[in-house]
Amino acid sequence: MKNLLIKVLVALLLFPIAAFAADSLPSWNDGSAKQSIIAFVEKVTKPGSPDFVPVPERIATFDNDGTLWCEQPAPVQLYFVLDRVKALAPQHPEWKTTEPFASLLKGDLKTALAGGDRAILQLFMATHTGMTTVEFEQIVKNWIATARHPKTGKLFTDMTYQPMLELLAYLRANGFKTFIVSGGGIEFMRPWAEQVYGIPPEQVVGSSVKTKFEMRDGKPVLVRLPELNFNDDKSGKPVAINQHIGRRPIMAFGNSDGDREMLEYTQGGSGARFELLVLHDDATREYGYGPAKGLPDVKLGAFTQTLYDQAKKNNWTVVSMKDDWKQIFAFEN
Amino acid sequence: MKNLLIKVLVALLLFPIAAFAADSLPSWNDGSAKQSIIAFVEKVTKPGSPDFVPVPERIATFDNDGTLWCEQPAPVQLYFVLDRVKALAPQHPEWKTTEPFASLLKGDLKTALAGGDRAILQLFMATHTGMTTVEFEQIVKNWIATARHPKTGKLFTDMTYQPMLELLAYLRANGFKTFIVSGGGIEFMRPWAEQVYGIPPEQVVGSSVKTKFEMRDGKPVLVRLPELNFNDDKSGKPVAINQHIGRRPIMAFGNSDGDREMLEYTQGGSGARFELLVLHDDATREYGYGPAKGLPDVKLGAFTQTLYDQAKKNNWTVVSMKDDWKQIFAFEN
Fold first, then answer.
1. Is A55 an interface residue toward B (CB < 8 Å)?
2. Global pTM value
3. What ipTM was predicted for this assembly?
4. What confidence score (pLDDT) does residue B40 get?
5. Chain A contact for B125, CB < 8 A?
6. Mutate to test the interface with B, among A232, A242, A244, A264 (most CBs of B within 10 A)
7. A233 contact B CB<8A
């Protein structure tokens, strides 16, 4: 009985990995990108391998917009801002004559955003602050449950990349802890990241506003203040990784210049490291933007030629959505 | 075979909880404190119980100084500061004539700290910043490996409370994720918290300085800057819990006024909640400080009468180290 118990236990422990190894990434075409991922995971998880990494150090960080879900024609959080401005407009009659709100309410996004970072910050603060954290969480939950992509008409949460969902599950099955490290709002992502990505709130890192502890009617609450706490982009990403995780990732995934420093920081550690960038080169099934293959460059979420050259020089894996992904969205089938 | 496999699997799944239930808290005397902990854990983990809490929401937060390890005659991090000032003094001849360094180097702690918060901040910045995060981690590791408590002569890491180590293990065995939420430095605790408490770096929350991403000789590093980033004390604790964890704890443990808001915030959530304060009333085996039973009050790490009254009013569990703990330190036996 004891021997049988041990055999069953060993079988149970080995089972998940063995099962996944069959084909844990079915939406990925066989090619160098898929092979580079599997080769890396196998070498860092194989006991006795010179590249073996203990489970607690298997940290993988993922950008969100353009890496885990679609960020075109505009980042999802911007649609949230637009809808919130419309919803709040009746309480703010002054917005009818005040920019950037006035243009936004007329549907003229271009003029609204002409004010640059200052206008964007104004729109974010007006829609993201002034309420408690619990109230904001509920606002986001209500919105994400029904908000739809302007082109496909699908829920934004269905605009997640099937190959990346498989990758998240594959890494977790191999003992990795998966984190989001995004320029997006930390409290905009947390309410749905667990259900959509299997990533719990404590593993979501993002940009944030300051909050203040207060007693309201004898109840302790945190109030969201109209003041930026942290901008989790570019060189802010390694800073936030250190602050939240306290360990250097061994794998990092991004798709734009905003992820450069996260990938550099990941690669700069000792031992085996893996970096990957998603290239949006499939205008038919998704959107075509970025430097390679003659695609037009875009400002927001840009994958510049400089980044592309650096990726090639540093041996970062570049995923061609067109060639490397058999399927992009789950709803395609 | 299939039935047997299921039986074995079920047995294996149930085993850890059943085993711990025997007596997972052997260093706790039987009494209301121990009983309140076990009763709470049993009701939130029992499937079908009206108070059942799903595993991902079983978040427990612990203060460190005075809650998990001894903070007398002074917080451990202050001894680190003293030793670092001595070690760095040869590189800073000006310290011989500059306060608060001059008095500190003469061994006159009282005069050194007479400058109040400003003096303390100066001492911290001089010893905690200017190096990379990797360098600082190594400095802490080297120090903690040999630094000893001035009274007992034991390593500081042996000055951890055995009943609390048992409690951490008991909670984790019951599906809880355990976090440190301390006024101490986040990067002062992370290098040893995993080994000493079983709490990984990503579950350590504390005070911090700002860091800056830089390339040094082509290598990406984070440099620790002489600027406070966050003071994780009092109302800062709920703010940091929200920022790092993104969920309200269902259990919180502290020992001083600095933990009041963390316990209030924990209690303010819906569903079953548990709050506990450790009262230092054992001058023989540890230190006697705090309001109750006629003990003298102390400023640092104070458990004031106001807090004591609030604990009683709010039904927070108050642990008497003298009466509730059979053993305080592992080295006692």
1. no
2. 0.92
3. 0.91
4. 98
5. no
6. A242
7. no
Q: A265: which chain B residues are within 8 Å (Cβ-Cβ)?
A: 213, 220, 222
Give B236's contacts in chain A (Cβ within 8 Å).
213
B204 touching A (Cβ < 8 Å): yes
Distance CA A220, CA B120 (A): 31
Q: Does the pLDDT of residue A272 top 80, yes or no?
A: yes
Helices (H), B145-258: 162-173, 186-197, 236-244
Chain A residue numbers touching B138 (CB-CB < 8 A): none
* Residue among A6, A213, A262, A275 with most chain B CBs within 10 A, to mutate: A213
The C-alpha of B321 sits at a distance from chain A's nearest C-alpha, in angstroms, of 29
One-letter amino acid for residue B162 of the chain: Q
Check if A225 contacts B (Cβ < 8 Å): no
Q: How far is CA B113 from CA A69, A234, B71, B257, in A?
A: 53, 40, 17, 21
Residue A43 contacts B where some CB pair is shorter than 8 Å? no
Asked if the C-beta of B56 comes within 8 angstroms of chain A's C-beta atoms, the answer is yes
- Cβ atoms within 10 Å of A290's Cβ, excluding its own: 27
Dig out the tokens for A227 from the structure. Answer: 């003041």
Q: What is the pLDDT of residue A15?
A: 52
Q: What is the DSSP letter of B331?
A: G
Residue B55 phi/psi, 5° resolution?
-50, -50
Q: Is B261 on the interface with A (CB under 8 A)?
A: yes
Percent of all residues in chain A with a pLDDT value above 70, rounded to a whole number: 90
Instruction: Tell me what pLDDT residue B11 has.
Output: 55
Q: Where are the beta strands (DSSP E) in chain A?
A: 59-62, 177-185, 204-216, 219-230, 251-254, 274-281, 288-289, 317-320
What is the C-alpha separation between B198 and B179, in angstroms, rounded?
10
**A156-171 pLDDT, tens digit each:** 999 999 999 999 999 9
C-beta separation of B268 from B261 below 8 A:
no
Q: How do residues B45-70 score in pLDDT, each as one tens digit?
A: 999 999 999 999 999 999 999 999 99
Contact call for residues B301 and B291 (beta carbons, < 8 A)? no
- State how far the Cα of A252 lies from the Cα of A178, in Å rounded to an integer: 10
| Cross-strand bridge partners of residue B224 | B211
Q: How far apart are CA A166 and CA A172, in angstroms?
A: 10
CA gap B196, B160 in Å, rounded:
8
Higher pLDDT, B5 or A212: A212
Alpha carbon distances (Å) from A236 to A76, A121, A243, A261, B222: 21, 17, 10, 8, 11
The closest of B291, B293, B76, B64 to B180, measured between CA atoms, is: B64
User: Which A positions 76-105 lie with beta carbon below 8 A of chain B?
Assistant: none
CA distance B187 to chain A (A): 8
Region A168-188 average pLDDT: 98
Residue tagged 């995780």 (tokens): A245
